[in-house]
Write a structure and sequence with these properties.
The complex is a heterodimer.
Chain A: E1 4-7, E2 10-13, E3 19-25, E4 33-38, E5 45-49, E6 53-54, E7 62-67, E8 70-75, E9 85-90, E10 97-98, E11 102-106
Parallel strand pairs in A: 2-11
Antiparallel strand pairs in A: 1-3, 3-8, 4-5, 4-9, 5-6, 7-8, 9-10, 9-11
Chain B: E1 3-7, E2 10-12, E3 18-25, E4 34-39, E5 45-51, E6 58-60, E7 68-73, E8 78-83, E9 92-102, E10 105-113, E11 117-121
Classes of the chains: A mainly beta, B mainly beta.
């Protein structure tokens, strides 16, 4: 199985900050990586697919990059509604696997 | 609108069975693969299973293989998860989620999610 290592597990930030979250796969997954946002009590929401493609309706302050084993999610200017937990997911092979999540908290 | 609605969760004793349902609306259900993903209390997301749009292929996570069965009824726009031999560690919110379709290709990320149904395994 492909293991997804996400870091940091939490980050404290302020509105307007640039936030970067990384995800590393235990083996190469090309660009088959997705990022999700989840708020408490809610279902996850797809933000980025294929490592760098923005899902329809997602603000352009979200961006993704990387290929192979190393990936990054960047929020260019953190907004109040962006405080949430973010997960990466490899979509390369079954079983699908998620990172353990990064909680973006208020500084 | 495009929607997935889970049901069937509840409290069940260890070793017993439960069947979850996921009703789809607002999109051509029979054209999409559908996943089950679960989330234990305070924990991250765990992929459970997927079924192809036509039911021809099914894959399972290691922790549920041999105990859970995914199926679908395209005439009813409904997905199922039959859960047998339930364990305490199966306690979670269970989400169904639609596989992303782009052009004529399916991708194993999930663009539409239900609100989840809660399963509690306790004696």
């Amino acid at each position: 199985d492909i293991q997804m290592t996400q870091s940091p597990s939490s980050v404290s930030a302020s509105v307007g900050d640039r936030v970067t979250i990384t995800c590393r796969a235990s083996q190469g997954i090309s660009s088959w990586l997705a990022w999700y946002q989840q708020k408490p009590g809610k279902a996850p929401k797809l933000l980025i697919y294929a490592a760098s493609s923005l899902q329809s309706g997602v603000p352009s302050r979200f961006s993704g990059s990387g290929s192979g084993t190393d990936f990054t999610l960047t929020i260019s200017s953190l907004q109040p509604e962006d405080f949430a937990t973010y997960y990466c997911q490899q979509a390369n092979s079954f079983p699908l696997t998620f990172g353990r999540g990064t909680k973006v908290e208020t500084k | 609108q495009v929607q997935l609605v889970e049901s069937g969760g509840g409290v069940v004793q260890p070793g017993r069975s439960l069947r979850l349902s996921c009703a789809a609306s607002g999109f051509p259900f029979s054209s999409y693969g559908i996943h089950w993903v679960r989330q234990a209390p305070g924990q991250g997301l765990e992929w459970v299973a997927v079924i192809w749009y036509d039911g021809s292929k099914k894959y399972y996570g290691d922790s549920v293989k041999g105990r859970f069965t995914i199926s679908r009824d395209n005439s009813k726009n409904t997905l199922y998860l039959q859960m047998n031999s339930l364990r305490a560690e199966d306690k979670a919110v269970y989400y169904c989620a639609r596989e992303r379709l782009s052009g004529s290709s399916w991708y194993s990320d999930m663009d539409v999610w239900g609100q989840g149904t809660t399963v509690t395994v306790s004696s």
